[in-house]
Specification:
- The structure is a single chain.
- The N and C termini lie far apart (161 Å).
- It is built from two helices and eight strands, in the order H-E-E-H-E-E-E-E-E-E.
- The chain is α/β, with parallel strands linked by helices and 201 residues long.
- It has an eight-stranded mixed sheet with strand order 1-5-6-8-7-4-3-2.
Length: 201
């Protein structure tokens, strides 16, 4: 087919198709007017709506085990117990320059219990005693002519040291102290030492 013949055939086909479309639009294909078409309403929603609530997935059980047998129960390791060294008074090897006794406990009848508790203890009427390793090492070595003042209690007054005594035992009967108005007692090694005092006021 030649080019001119192809163009002529194509043009004729286009004219025929246009005439057919015009005829359908103006005559409805049946000779009458084309009916007016009403567009369908736009649907924006369909109800009623319910809120979406997602269903949570259950968490896996922590008690599950793939091992044979039950999983052992873990127990916390208890904190270690730290042993504390008992507090003790520091021994005083030499007596203070100014001795003022402001506190002691009258434990006549149960003196050893009070002495063991670390208290300066009065017993037998005029003896003040204390353990040497609880801060009372100086009681038996107060220098002669040193003044000792007892501030309160039945032994209140001012005294002066006139001598010393030592026995080679601890405990037992009370030795004779002559005319001592006040006796200061503590242990010395395996024995017991005493400072003997007279009242001056």
């Amino acid at each position: 087919m030649k080019r001119n013949d192809y163009i002529a055939a194509t043009t004729a086909t286009a004219i025929t198709l246009a005439a057919f479309v015009y005829s359908v639009n103006n005559h409805g294909g049946g000779g009458g007017p084309t009916p007016h078409l009403t567009p369908a309403p736009y649907v924006s929603s369909v109800g009623p709506w319910t809120h979406y609530k997602p269903t949570p997935n259950p968490r896996p059980s922590t008690s599950h085990t793939d091992r044979n047998g039950a999983r052992p129960t873990l127990k916390p390791t208890p904190a270690p117990t730290v042993a504390k060294r008992p507090a003790t008074k520091r021994p005083i090897p030499t007596p203070p320059a100014d001795i003022r006794i402001s506190f002691y406990k009258d434990c006549t009848g149960y003196a050893q219990k009070c002495i063991d508790a670390g208290t300066l203890t009065m017993y037998a009427g005029n003896i003040l005693a204390g353990h040497n390793y609880m801060g009372y090492q100086w009681l038996s070595c107060v220098p002669a002519d040193r003044t000792v003042r007892v501030i309160s209690g039945p032994l209140a007054g001012t005294y002066r040291v006139y001598g010393h005594m030592k026995i080679n035992r601890q405990g037992g009967s009370i030795p004779s102290f002559g005319g001592a108005a006040l006796v200061l007692q503590t242990c010395e090694g395996r024995g017991t030492g005493f400072s003997l005092l007279r009242r001056t006021k």
